[in-house]
């Protein structure tokens, strides 16, 4: 039986779930919602790095990222610029990006990550 570990759990979700060598990060949003898309994407990417480290891995081991934008027409290009700088010399994971009504009107981006250790 594979080991199952959960980090930052509450009655609604676990922020990180590790099952064997698979790592799942729940939807990550910015903590400071006052900035524009560049600031919010940078915050979320920082959270991804933090949680991957917590799970014993890093961004080079990301398999898939699902990105939700509040306004894809307005924010897609800027989000990609921040994303590309963050990845720089790291292999790019599989990725999907879509537009969705997010949980709070000031949230511009949310990311869901699957990685391996």
Order of helices and strands: EEEHEHEE
Q: Radius of gyration, Cα only, in angstroms?
A: 14 Å
Percent helix, as a range, is 25-40%
Class from secondary-structure proportions = alpha+beta
Q: Low-confidence parts, pLDDT < 50 over ≥5 residues? A: none
For the report, how would you describe the main beta sheet?
Answer: 6 strands, mixed
The shape, in one word, is globular
Mean pLDDT, nearest integer?
A: 96
Kindly report how far apart the N and C termini lie: 17 Å
Q: Total number of helical segments?
A: 2
Tell how many strands the DSSP assignment holds.
6
The portion of residues forming beta strands comes to 35-45%
What spatial order of strands do you see in the largest sheet? 1-2-3-6-4-5
Describe this structure in words.
There is one protein chain. The protein is 29% helix and 35% strand. Helix 1 crosses helix 2. It contains 2 helices and 6 strands, in the order βββαβαββ. It has 117 residues and is α+β, with helices and mostly antiparallel strands. A 6-stranded mixed β-sheet has the order 1-2-3-6-4-5.
């Amino acid at each position: 039986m594979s080991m199952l570990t959960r980090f930052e759990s509450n009655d609604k979700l676990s922020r990180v779930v590790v099952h064997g060598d698979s790592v799942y990060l729940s939807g990550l949003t910015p903590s400071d919602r006052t900035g524009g898309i560049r600031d919010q994407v940078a915050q979320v990417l920082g959270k991804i790095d933090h949680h991957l480290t917590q799970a014993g891995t890093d961004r080079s081991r990301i398999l898939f990222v699902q990105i939700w934008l509040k306004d894809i027409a307005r924010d897609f290009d800027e989000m990609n610029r921040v994303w590309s700088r963050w990845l720089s010399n790291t292999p790019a994971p599989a990725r999907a990006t879509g537009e969705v009504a997010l949980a709070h009107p000031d949230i511009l981006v949310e990311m869901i990550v699957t990685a391996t250790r």
